[in-house]
UniProtKB/TrEMBL annotation, chains A, B:
The chain crosses the membrane at residues 25-46. InterPro entries: PLD-like_dom, PLD_domain, PLipase_D/transphosphatidylase. GO terms for molecular function: RNA endonuclease activity producing 5'-phosphomonoesters, hydrolytic mechanism. CDD domains: PLDc_vPLD6_like. Pfam families: PLDc_2. The keyword Membrane applies. The keyword NAD does not apply. GO terms for cellular component: mitochondrion. Gene3D superfamilies: Endonuclease Chain A. It catalyses: a cardiolipin + H2O = a 1,2-diacyl-sn-glycero-3-phospho-(1'-sn-glycerol) + a 1,2-diacyl-sn-glycero-3-phosphate + H(+). GO terms for biological process: lipid catabolic process; meiotic cell cycle; piRNA processing. It comes from Carassius auratus (Goldfish). This is Mitochondrial cardiolipin hydrolase. Belongs to the phospholipase D family. MitoPLD/Zucchini subfamily.
C-alpha cells in the first residue's frame, strides 16, 4: 500500500515537472538558490552571535613550552612530510603563540625588549614576505647582543626602531596583530624564555585592552623616529640606523 | 494670589500635623524611613547595573611613572600633613598600581622576578600587618641581589617561596588581589622599572583571565614547597629557607 502511494506520488511529481514550463522551472530553481543563500547567511549570523555571546577572545599561555615540531604552521601543505625527530601534531603554548602571530593579514606591530628566538624571527620574516606591514620597536642595548634577530629583520627590509635613550630600557613585550589582537606578557622572544623560564602570555581582542597598547606603540614609534633625533657618532661612524617606513 | 494659596496650604498642613496623633506621626516617619532606605538600595542597584554593563574592570598602566607623593595611600588621615618636596594630589601609573594592591582585604598572591622597590615593599608589609594573607613566589637568583626586599618580607613573617631549579628563571610579574583582581605585565618591582623603563601593567577582574593566573600561582606555590624538596647545603649551611604557611 505504502509502495503504491509512493509510486503515485513519484508519478505525480514527474507529471508536474513535465507540465512545468522552462520559465517556471527557472523560478523554482531561483527561489531554491535564494533560500540556500539566505540559509547560509543565517547560519553565519548565528555563528557570529554565538561567538559574540562568549565575548572577545581571551587566552592565557604559560611557559616553558615543550619542544614540538611547528613546521606545519609555516608550510601549509596538506600532506607535509616532516621528518624531524620532534613530536608532531602536538599543540603547545609556543605553537599557540605562533598561530596567533601568523594570523596577521594586514599589520604586525611588535614592541619587544629582547629578540633572539629563531622560529619567532622566521614567523616575522614570513609575514613580511606575505605583505604584512611589520613595525618593530626594541631596546637599544639588547638589539645588539649575540643571537639577536633584529639585524636579520632589518636586512629583510623590516622597519625597526629602537629606544633612543641609553638610560632607559624598552622593556615591553607585546605585539598587536592587525590592530585588533593583543599579545602581551612577561615573555621575551628568546629560546630561554620559551623553553626554560616560568613565563606568561595573554592574548586578547578586548578593545578596552587593545586600544591603550596600540596608542602606546604609536607613541613609541613616533618618539623613536630617527628623523627626530640628532645623529650620534661613535669613533667617527654614525650609530643610528635609519629605515624606510611603509 | 499665589502667596495666598501657599499660605492656605501651609496652614492646612500645620493643622494636619496638629490633628495627627503621635501614632500616626510615627507611621509617617517610619514609612518615610523605609522609602529612604529603598531609594538608597535602588540607587546602589542602579550603580551596580551600570558597572556591570561596562563589564569587569580593565585598566592599563604605562611606565615610567613620574615621581609623586604617595604617602596619603599609606596613612589615610583626613588632613595628612605631608611636608615632602614631591608633587601632591597627582594620580600616576604608580599610584594607581599602589591603589590596586592596597585594595586587598583577604589575600595577595604575588609572583615576581625581581623585587627591590621600597614603596611596593612597604605596601606588602602594610597589607600583612592588616591581616591580609600574603604569599610570594620569586626567583632564586634575583631574590638575593643588592636591594632585594625579599629578606624584609621574610623577616616580617610573610611566606616567600622561590623557584627551586637554578636552571630556570621565575620570570612572571603578576599579583592576584583577593583572588579576583589580576595585576600583570612587563614591570618588575624595581625603582628602575617604575621610574625609568618603558613598561606596561594590566589590571583586570575578567574571570577568564584571572582564573588561569590563579591556577598558575597555586601550581608554582605547591611545586616550590620546601617540604617537597631535599635541603641543599652550601659550605655546610642550609640554603633553602622554610616558611610557616598561613
Amino acid at each position: 500500500m505504502r509502495v503504491a502511494r509512493a509510486f503515485n506520488c513519484h508519478l505525480s511529481l514527474a507529471d508536474m515537472s513535465q507540465q512545468m514550463s522552462c520559465k517556471e522551472l527557472m523560478k523554482v530553481l531561483g527561489l531554491g538558490a535564494v533560500a540556500f543563500v539566505l540559509g547560509v547567511e543565517w547560519l553565519n549570523w548565528l555563528k557570529r552571535r554565538l561567538r559574540d555571546s562568549r565575548g572577545p577572545l581571551k587566552e592565557v599561555l604559560f611557559f616553558p613550552s615543550p619542544q614540538v615540531c611547528v613546521e606545519h604552521l609555516f608550510i601549509r601543505h596538506k600532506h607535509f612530510p616532516c621528518a624531524c625527530p620532534l613530536p608532531h601534531g602536538v599543540e603547545t603554548s609556543f605553537s599557540r603563540l605562533l598561530v596567533h602571530l601568523l594570523s596577521a593579514r594586514v599589520s604586525l606591530d611588535l614592541c619587544v625588549f629582547s629578540f633572539s628566538h629563531m622560529e619567532l624571527s622566521r614567523a616575522i620574516l614570513l609575514l613580511h614576505k606575505q605583505g604584512v606591514v611589520v613595525r618593530v620597536v626594541t631596546d637599544r642595548d639588547y638589539m645588539t647582543i649575540t643571537g639577536s634577530q633584529i639585524g636579520a629583520l632589518r636586512k629583510a627590509g623590516i622597519c625597526v626602531r629602537h629606544e633612543m635613550s641609553s638610560a632607559v630600557h624598552m622593556h615591553h613585550k607585546f605585539a598587536l596583530v592587525d590592530s585588533r589582537k593583543l599579545i602581551t606578557g612577561s615573555l621575551n622572544w628568546t629560546l630561554t624564555a620559551v623553553q626554560s623560564n616560568k613565563e606568561n602570555v595573554m592574548v586578547t581582542e578586548e578593545p578596552e585592552l587593545v586600544g591603550p597598547y596600540q596608542q602606546e606603540f604609536q607613541k613609541l614609534w613616533e618618539a623613536n623616529d630617527p628623523a627626530n633625533h640628532k645623529p650620534q657618532y661613535t669613533n667617527g661612524q654614525l650609530n643610528i640606523k635609519t629605515c624606510k617606513d611603509k
